[in-house]
Amino acid sequence: MVTIGTYEAPQWGKRGWLSPMTGLPANYDLDDVVKTARDGLSYNGQLYALPFYVESSMTYYRKDLFQAAGLKMPDQPTYDQIKQFADKLTDKSKGQYGICLRGKAGWGENMAYVSTDVNTFGGEWFNEKWQAQLDTPEWHKAVTFYSDLLKNDGPPGASSNGFNQNLTLMSSGKCAMWIDATVAAGMLYNKSQS
Fold first, then answer.
1. 41 and 122: one domain?
2. Burial, 177: exposed, middle or buried (Cβ in 10 Å; 0-12, 13-18, 19+)?
3. Would residue 188 count as lying in a domain?
């Protein structure tokens, strides 16, 4: 067994380098696996790897704070809407902030969400020639959005906030929204057909 991801599994499955995942035990409920993870590990509808965890980005929000402000969160909010909500829900005199984001430095901290943010703005870490893309308009827009949102509508000391700090702020009603993300998905694949 080897750890691979959604990039390799379908390509290697197509080339016949992996055996299909068949004969799974009856108590392994494949329908309980996130559909996008199953699809990302498949080629032509055939599964070639099983996830041992799946990570994603998510937006949490406090229904009580939204209701008190007369706001309704759509099923798929845009970042423009998130910013508008954060602006309306920030009341620094009450110690209430529109948004919590990980500001603490590090890959497992702020950089996981920054990657999601950059992807949303059309950026990428590297282009097809493996040239770094950190100094592009897309990166500038994404990082500016992130830092402005945190500066204008985030809690004080946000540069020290990681998961636990944001969880506390959110659960205590100090933050109206919390966007968090994790970006790596580990996968296991079956033996090679070599």
1. no
2. buried
3. no
Distance of CA 21 to the CA centre of its chain: 27
Residue 63 and residue 39 in one domain: no
Is 60 exposed, middle or buried, given 0-12, 13-18 or 19+ CB atoms closer than 10 A?
middle
- What is the phi-psi region of residue 45: left when phi exceeds 0, alpha when psi lies from -120 to 50, beta otherwise? left
Percent of the chain scored above 70 by pLDDT? 93
Give 137-190 pLDDT, tens digit per residue: 999 999 999 999 999 999 999 999 998 999 999 999 999 999 987 543 444 444
In a domain, 27, yes or no: yes
Of 113, 37, 43, 50, the C-alpha closest to 79 is 113
Does position 17 have pLDDT exceeding 90, yes or no? yes
pLDDT digits (tens, 9 = 90+) for 24-35: 998 988 888 888
Q: Are 149 and 141 in contact (CB under 8 A)?
A: no
Whether the model clears a pTM of 0.85, i.e. scores above it, the answer is no
Q: What is the pLDDT of residue 37?
A: 87
72 shares its domain with 47: no
Task: Specify whether 170 is located in the same domain as 103.
Answer: yes
Q: Cα separation of 104 and 161, whole Å?
A: 5
Name the residue range of residue 45's domain: 3-54
Backbone angles phi, psi at 84, to 5 degrees: -60, -45
Same domain, 149 and 76: yes
Tokens of 194: 């070599």
